[in-house]
């Protein structure tokens, strides 16, 4: 059964609303517009472009005590009073652990060709290492087999923030041993899925889980570290990425593609004067010096180390060589960006602050910046010599809720996606090496420290009944996929 309304049904349902808002086009205006020209009105993506959706284990799976799963830092964090805005947790979330066939049917109805999901480390090694949990492994084998049966290619993230709590008690990413434990887990899981998964991402957004979870208190484990302790935790996470790249290659061979997914506030020139473009390209390197730049060059920039001074991490040349292990692609999570202008200073650029009048989406951290999708991939590729990029997350929250007829008419999300995808196509046409796009997210889900108060899904989820209802944005995305164009 197709969970979407047919085009005819949907048109009938909203026809009255559209008719009430429509303004007839004058005959002379129609004549001036000329005949329909699909080349001019639709911006096509390259043949073979991958269209997908994305989720993360703790945000959708639920079943936190099922089949031998161990406790994660997010289980501990969300059950600490006052940590989550609405007092909720991911114990149930979308119950995707049991309902994944239904969710795969949603993807298939969209026409999606790819699905980015994450493996919950505590399902595989409940204590972070030691003896693997066969029931956890079997779940992910069933998931990827079901995806293949539906004609959907799995893209697997091995760490999306759910560190086993047992490892956190030993220091988490402050402890260098965690990097080795992660590599052991990554190599084992990649070997178990070898032949089923062709694209692995080591980690999701080191910048976020270190910055907000170790440097801040708004994400698990909420330590609020400063100075050298924070820089060292960041370095250990980078080392874990590099060791995992090597472990995955050892377990699967050359045929498997390995990368990571990193969040960026995309560098954008305030406007495209040559000097501001150069400034934004410099910012692409230096503003990502502790993450992507180190991963792609195998070194910390001189300015990064100088800025940290005595707080710089301790490292060896061998560790930097490992961190710079060659990858096959780079995932970029793009939601917003930062504008830059040329400046006569050591960096050669200056960030332009967003004025209070600048438009934002529901989530206050998402400034509406479609330019980010043009400049971000383009400048990151140029600055770091990246040959293959996937947009591994892009989307927005919305306050749109079911109306009296049960429809979710999230026109703010449709507007957001239309503008960002238009800029992505323009960037690809101008040389950005983007091979695919994964919309965040397939489902409304547990939004970390915001709980269930912000909904990023193109499918409405009634968390009391687990009923799924595709939103207007799902219809829009289905049509984009079908036409491979905006």
TrEMBL record:
Keywords: Carbohydrate metabolism, Cellulose degradation, Glycosidase, Hydrolase, Polysaccharide degradation, Signal. The lineage of its organism: Bacteria, Pseudomonadati, Pseudomonadota, Gammaproteobacteria, Lysobacterales. It is an enzyme of class 3 (hydrolase). It comes from the Bacteria. Belongs to the glycosyl hydrolase 1 family. InterPro entries: GH, GH_1_N_CS, Glyco_hydro_1, Glyco_hydro_1_beta-glucosidase, TAT_signal. One of its GO terms (molecular function) is beta-galactosidase activity. Residues 1-26 form the signal peptide. This is Beta-glucosidase. PROSITE patterns: GLYCOSYL_HYDROL_F1_2, TAT. It comes from Dyella agri. It catalyses: Hydrolysis of terminal, non-reducing beta-D-glucosyl residues with release of beta-D-glucose. PANTHER family: GLYCOSYL HYDROLASE (PTHR10353), LP05116P (PTHR10353:SF36). Pfam families: Glyco_hydro_1 (PF00232). Its EC number is 3.2.1.21.
């Amino acid at each position: 059964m197709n969970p979407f309304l047919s085009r005819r049904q949907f048109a009938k349902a909203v026809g009255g609303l559209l008719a009430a808002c429509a303004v007839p086009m004058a005959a002379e205006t129609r004549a001036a517009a000329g005949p329909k020209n699909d080349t001019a009105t639709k911006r096509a993506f390259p043949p073979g472009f991958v269209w997908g959706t994305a989720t993360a284990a703790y945000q959708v799976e639920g079943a936190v005590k099922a089949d031998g799963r161990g406790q994660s830092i997010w289980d501990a964090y969300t059950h600490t009073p006052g940590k989550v805005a609405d007092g909720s947790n991911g114990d149930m979330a979308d119950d995707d652990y049991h309902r994944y066939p239904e969710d795969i049917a949603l993807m298939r109805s969209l026409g999606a060709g790819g699905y980015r999901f994450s493996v919950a480390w505590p399902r595989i090694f409940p204590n972070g290492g030691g003896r693997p949990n066969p029931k956890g492994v079997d779940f992910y084998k069933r998931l990827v087999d079901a995806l293949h049966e539906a004609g959907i290619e799995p893209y697997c993230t091995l760490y999306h923030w759910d560190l086993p709590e047992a490892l956190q008690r030993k220091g988490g990413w402050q402890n260098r041993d965690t990097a080795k434990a992660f590599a052991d887990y990554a190599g084992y899981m990649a070997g178990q899925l070898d032949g089923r998964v062709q694209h692995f991402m080591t980690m999701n957004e080191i910048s976020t889980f270190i910055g907000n979870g170790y440097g801040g208190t708004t994400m698990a484990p909420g330590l609020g570290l400063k100075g050298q302790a924070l820089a060292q935790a960041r370095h250990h996470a980078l080392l874990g990425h590099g060791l995992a790249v090597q472990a995955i290659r050892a377990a699967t061979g050359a045929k498997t593609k390995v990368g990571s997914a990193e969040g960026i506030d995309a560098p954008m020139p305030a406007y495209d004067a040559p000097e501001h473009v150069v400034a934004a390209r410099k910012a692409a390197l230096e503003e990502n010096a502790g993450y992507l730049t180190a991963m792609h060059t195998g070194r910390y920039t001189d300015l990064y180390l100088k800025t940290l001074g005595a707080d710089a991490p301790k490292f060896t040349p061998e560790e930097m060589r490992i961190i710079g292990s060659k990858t096959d692609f780079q995932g970029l999570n793009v939601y917003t960006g930062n504008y830059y202008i040329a400046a006569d200073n050591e960096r050669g650029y200056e960030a332009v602050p967003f004025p209070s009048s600048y438009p934002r989406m529901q989530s206050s951290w998402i400034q509406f910046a479609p330019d980010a999708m043009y400049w971000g991939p383009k400048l990151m590729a140029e600055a770091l010599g990246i040959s293959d990029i996937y947009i591994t997350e892009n989307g927005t929250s919305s306050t749109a809720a079911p109306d009296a007829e049960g429809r979710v008419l999230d026109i703010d999300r449709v507007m957001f996606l239309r503008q960002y995808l238009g800029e992505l196509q323009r960037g690809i046409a101008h040389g950005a090496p983007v091979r695919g796009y994964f919309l965040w997210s397939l489902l409304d889900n547990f939004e970390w420290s915001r709980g269930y108060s912000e909904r990023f899904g193109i499918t409405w989820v009634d968390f009391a009944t687990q009923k799924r209802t595709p939103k207007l944005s799902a219809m829009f995305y289905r049509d984009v996929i079908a036409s491979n164009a905006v």
